[in-house]
Amino acid sequence: MKLTTPLRATVLAVAALSLVACETMSQRERGTAQGAGIGAVAGAVIASATGGKAGSGAVAGAAVGAIAGNLWSKRMEEKQRAMERATAGTGIDVAKTADNQLKVNVPSDLSFATGRADLNPSLRPVLDQFAHGLDATVLVRIVGHTDSTGSDAINDPLSLERARTVRNYLEDRGVPASRLMIEGRGARQPVADNGTDAGRAQNRRVEIFLREPAA
Q1: 138 domain-assigned
Q2: Residue ending a domain, choose from 16, 44, 75
Q3: N or C: which terminus of the chain has fewer CB atoms within 10 Å of its end residue's CB?
Q4: Which H helix or E strand runs over 14?
């Protein structure tokens, strides 16, 4: 579809304002601005294509987009704060991913001993808090990783068994099995150099991803 001059101006203005605003905003405010920007552009395009006014369509789309963006980001922000409180001082990293998941990275010194899949006792109280902080809708994906020591025939099942150990622990703490999925990536996704002890230690890890179910 060819954009008319007014519609092109509306799209460019909304995009520019969203980018500038996001530089100084919190995560939740950024979600609102980004949702408003996407909604405004969509509203303008639809209005223009159906014979309406691009400007009024943009305003309506921005309002809807702002509400959706703010609600999503607020939920994610609250979960991130809860996970950060539960893991404070443990060395576990909690971060928001680009696709609106929360990623909890558990390093090797807190998760599993080399070559083993039994849970480190120091991780149990963290997982207790983790399970307690999950709401009734969040979905959990647990991904196990190893370093490059050993063959894929050893590392692949070991990484999966580590993820399964975490899943079983969370299930025992009341998280429904239907909301838990596991993966084992072996040594295929290193985050550090496997040529050093420190790098191998970083690569031996478990990652836990949280996301809301699709609407």
Answers
A1: yes
A2: 75
A3: C
A4: helix 5-22
pLDDT at 73 over 80: no
Residue 156 lies in a domain: yes
What's the sign of the alpha-carbon dihedral 33, 214, 169, 104? negative
**Could you tell me the residue range of the domain that residue 21 belongs to?**
5-75
Cα–Cα distances (Å) from 200 to 10, 12, 95, in that order, read 51, 47, 21
Q: Give the domain CATH number at 181.
A: 3.30.1330.60
Nearest to 76 by CA among 94, 99, 101: 101
Which of residues 167 and 20 earns the better pLDDT score?
167
Q: Enumerate the β-bridge partners of residue 211.
A: 139
> What element of type H or E holds 164?
helix 152-172
The number of folded domains in the chain is 2
- Residue from 62, 58, 64 nearest 6 by CA: 58
Per-residue pLDDT, 126: 83
Q: Which two tokens stand for residue 81?
A: 């704060």
pTM: 0.67
Q: Please tell me the distance from the alpha carbon of residue 33 to that of residue 37, in angstroms, as a whole number.
A: 6
Instruction: State how far Cα 171 lies from the chain centre.
Output: 21
Same domain as 56, residue 105? no
77/4 Cα distance (integer angstroms): 38
For helices 152-172 and 124-132, the axis angle rounded to 10 degrees is 50
pLDDT digits (tens, 9 = 90+) for 37-49: 544 444 444 445 5
